[in-house]
Amino acid sequence: MKRPAxxxxxxxxxxxxxxxxxxxxxxxxxxxxxPAATTPTDDTLAAIVVTASTGxxxxxxxxxxxxxxxSADIQNFDATSTAELYRLIPGIQVAGxxxxxxxxxxxxxxxxxxxxxxxxVQIQEDGLPVVLFGDIQFGNNDYWTHPMVTDERVxxxxxxxxxxxxxxxxxAVLNHISYxxxxxxxxxxxxxGVNYDWSKVNFRxxxxxxxxxxxxxxxxxxxxxxxxxxxxxVSNSYAFKGNxxxxxxxxxxxxxxxxxxANTQEPSYNGCISSANLNGxxxxxxxxxxxxxxxxxxxxxxxxxSSVLFADASGAISRQPIDGILTREKMLQFQxxxxxxxxxxxxxxxxxxxxxGNFDVQFYxxxxxxSVLSGTQSLIYANGPNAGNVFNGAYVSSSEAVHTNMNxxxxxxxxLAARYEFATGPFKGDLKVGYQYxxxxxxxDWHSNPSINEATxxxxxxxxxxxxxNGTGNLLSVGGQTGFNQGWNQQFDLTFTDNAPYADxxxxxxxLNLDASIREELFSGSGWAQGSTGAAVGTANVSQIDPRTGxxxxxxxxxxGYNGAVNAVNFSESATNWSVGALYKVTDxxxxxxxxxxxxxxxADRLTNSTPSYFNANGSLSAAGLANAAFxxxxxxxGLKNRGDLAGGHYTVELTGYYSKYSISSQEISQTNCENIxxxxxxxCIISGKYHDTGVELFTTYHNHGFNLVLSATxxxxxxxxxxxxxxxxxPNIPDLxxxxxxxxKIDKAEAGFSVNGQTSTLxxxxxxxxxxxxxxxxxxxxxxxxxxxxxxxYNLFNTYATQGASNFVGGTTNLLNAGVAQGRAVKGxxxxxx
Length: 835
Hints:
The chain is mainly beta.
């Protein structure tokens, strides 16, 4: 994989520093305030909210539910993926632990879809989304953002003004905010897996150039086979971020340049065959099977299946490595803050980004061997030590090998806002008006092949289908592949643009704060999309070596292509989002609030290639398209926030009750989901439903000298009607209770602690209830001499076999599961040199 030279990044940074440090801006002044975490470490409610908010108000005085994770929280929680980190945030519901490549389903307060992705959750970096839609097919939002040492904190706002101060983010905004202050000094850190092959180098540096100019830069490089002991390097990534700030004279504001260069390759795990006990509809005793231990085996990254053949749009055959999820990002962001005096300030946040990548994953789906055979057919080993021998195992993995080119995920964005503070008699407040523009191009081509492999977790071999019994007859597959483009198959080049004027009014009358905001979403899509009719367009003649004889033979496989009708896409939609809230400050330490919000999340690429089509011949939305183009969501919240002293320490508590209702219709490419949710057997289907959610979320912190506690919990009662006229039933794959905690104690030159994240039992899509689980972690740090820190982290301390996502029984069995499982015990050491 080609990677740009590091000196190019350094040179660009040096040029930017020189420009911003030029004499035209030089001044001898007191530094202006910038939007940073100015809160004391023991009082998170004193932090100024900058995400999907008017700014200048602390969490205690904001009638929204918002929590934040510090850089120390991020490091100590030691999550194995971006999505798993979010388990520390109340209200956020993550199904499964897919690995750091991503492809997780991230919901919030029950707002999610069975079709995958994160349609109601937006991930931002420094105040702007990286992708506008969290459920882009083979382009989900957790592909592009990974926790980095450049993150000062992650702010998470749920409900409330997420509908009105951000676009396409009705449920939540998760904002990774970089260090931007005068952070003189830095560190270099080396992390190394002790019981697994993985290494990582982190660094961060901040310094002042002159009295009015300063910078922060940082990044990482990692490489290795990973916790699940893949047969080759599944991690091979680097990312580099930085920013340079120039302050104006007289404390009037600043300009800031931010940049990011990333080239990542990380795994997305899909589990393997597990054992279980089914009593009635209760599933318990989930653990490794004789074939596989999903905690530390990665059958999707086998040395015997590390690359597969794919056919492009012209029918040309080429070989593609199975490398997981790859992303390439180059971003340039520009922020301006200026105080005109008299209560008027103006902020602008702009970005241009070039993004692309690949999704190269061998999915896993155990099934009986008999189910893949027809008539007199049998299976032989295509490669490995048993190549050419008859395969007599009871189970195989029969699923899709997917190669998707994310050719373009580029975007351009700008958020311009003016804020005016006023005071008239007993009233004081502020009015914010703004305009956000975001345009993203999504251009992809999918190549999906049916593939047969051993069901084992240890270097599974490819299995070839042959026409006769006992391994005799003609070869009917090539390296386990029985055809080209026979699974999910489409291509498209689409541009979605969101123009959104918005306004927010806050008024304080004594201890009462009233807030109202409105956003007009003007949304449009253009481009084209093409799928497949499902019928072969030709035959691919592939030359291969017959593993039984060692001679060259030619095997003819069915070739499907992009032969469906080309859908023109040329439509526009609009919606009005609003949110109103009231907060009463009972005391200086206790606030209560209520809020009602209405928001709309538009459908994007999942509108394309549906059957029947959602588009007319001219690209406008058909009647069916209009009915499925937008997802309206109503949310209601009641909460309290409290801080105070307890037993010599300081605590904060944020407690929010919520109720939401929404409807959704979306394209689903998984046959399993179609069967589990709708009871139909189709390769591609439309899942439509209505949802009601009621719940309570808690976020609390406690600090007492060296003792620190962060606790998060969410109770959610979610109901779904699988069609518009169906009765409401309990939603699958949403636990009643999820919880997490981070506990540490610091003394002198050492710190130690533990983390936990878990959930109670969960209703599966198959109607069975799966037992809950909890994962524990342990960490310790010691500074034996100045500037040196030694660290130890243990993920999944008790090596728990935790299934935190969807599971389903292998056909015809009641003791074998296809299940995604959390990664097993992983011990990691680190050395950090600070300067």
